[in-house]
Amino acid sequence: MKAPRHTETVLSRRQIEGLIAGGRCVIIVNQKVLKVDPWLKYHPGGDKAIMHMVGRDATDEVTALHSLSAQQKMNRYCIGRIEGRWENFVPPIQGGRFRPYCESSADKQEDVEDDTEVHTRNSDISRTPSPVFDTEQSNIRKRGRNNQMTSSASSISSVADLDDGMSWLDVQTKEQISLDLAKYPSLDLATQDEVVRKYRELDQRIRAEGLYDCNYSAYAIEACRYTFLAGMMLLFLRLGWYATSGMFLGALWHQLVFTVHDAGHMGITHSFTVDTMIGIIIADFIGGLSVGWWKRNHNVHHIVTNSPEHDPDIEHIPFFAISHRFFESLTSSFYERVMAYDTVAKLILPYQAYLYYPILTFGRFNLYFLSWEYLIRGLGPKKGPAWWHRWLEIAGQVFFWFWFGYLLLYKTIPTNSARFAFVMVSHMVTMPLHAQITLSHFAMSTAELGPHESFPQKMLRTTMDVDCPQWLDFFHGGLQFQAIHHLFPRMPRHNLRRTQKLVQDFCSDVGIPYALYGFVDGSKQVIGRLDEVGRQAALLAKCQRSIVEKGDILHGH
């Protein structure tokens, strides 16, 4: 009799837990158990995106972010399969704890007796224990529509006798969790399975209607727009209108980023090599930014959207905080460092609502730094299909600074004041892009509802769409449909508007609110969130000063 193939081996939950406890990276995709340790250093999208899927059913995330050919190649890492429904663990990178596996009879008996308890413990611990997330866990596993949310007034009075300002802020987080639990479908497995089933049906319908097919005529129009902006930049440069020339260059950069975004998701030709080349040529050679850095950052953002500890797209201390949890000096799993709530942060955050747009004006300079850091440190894959990306990007950076820094700024523009004006205008004009990026997430929930929340529900809970007339789509570049994009990230942006009605119907069917605001109203939501957290920062500082003063008085007596 032939020995069973690895793909036919049925692995128990305890066996998989034991593999993860031993340091293995194991994910579940379409009932297959994949041990992807060898692929971590080769993954074009970075290792962190994979690490956030360890111990989880990653079927929907893998399907959404990868081509069919890439999914088929994953089968080489298959070590077995599971039977029945998989209940997610919390990945080690998020603080999940795992027990080693022993094939002793005692251990097998333990599996039977303690299975339910272990599932709960390992599933719900995703961070250092805190009074916010590690108490009343049963409430997180139920929606509790009949439970009334505690009012802010009662919250304040309930902790009025506590001097520690964080105690009151923790109550605010509990209220946010309660609000999300009441507002969104239940987190019980049956409800989430139904959400996933209908999401997958929607995905199949979208594919059948050809909405994953790129509309190349739309890119022909985009190319005409890019040519016009580049031509106007050169015209005014020749005329000596340097600030005006810089304005058109900034507008060109602003528009080109949208095509880089499409290419990064393989949403243009759906070819890994071709779309990567398009992205590098535009981002590095023309814009001076790194596609590799963006992919590593952006893929994590798509998986752990709006998670304060894990999503780099909302980790902007000391300049911005959209949750009071940043006051705890959280450790970023992406940057692998403590996001210190230091003196600078305490000085800036109370006024962040007023500083929001001025800081965004200089956002492009920060992107240069992040790009250089990524390329210099070699944070991308050094082997595998993406080994050449870093070297082509470095060549692109050299080319960019040659044409922009030497030929344009130094050789063409005659005076330092004109050079300064050109640089500042060209970079400040890109500010709307940073506002568009933050608009879709800054006002949305940052609550952690545990590992049983489905991929589509989490995406819709943490992302908003922006309502705008169709003729303005070119200005937003698809970023106005971020909720739809997060559900179907590989869909070409010119098809997102056609998909909106289908997503709205899906949301109505499964009971998930579809967040849709006008640009002005959405911006008000963002400013309101920043103002709220800023006031919380001021309150915390006041409480801490009060504690110090009381301590001094007591010490004096």
Q: Beta fraction of the residues? A: under 5%
Euclidean distance between termini CA atoms: 86 Å
Task: Identify the overall geometry.
Answer: globular
Low-confidence stretches: 109-163
The radius of gyration over CA amounts to: 25 Å
Describe it.
It is a single chain. The protein has a three-stranded antiparallel beta sheet with strand order 1-2-3. Strands 4-5 form a two-stranded antiparallel sheet. Strands 6-7 form a two-stranded parallel sheet. The protein starts with 12 loop residues before the first helix and ends with a helix. The radius of gyration is 25 Å and the shape is globular. By secondary structure, the chain is mainly alpha-helical. The protein is built from 24 helices and seven strands. Helices cover 57% and strands 4% of the residues. The longest helix has 38 residues, at 519-556.
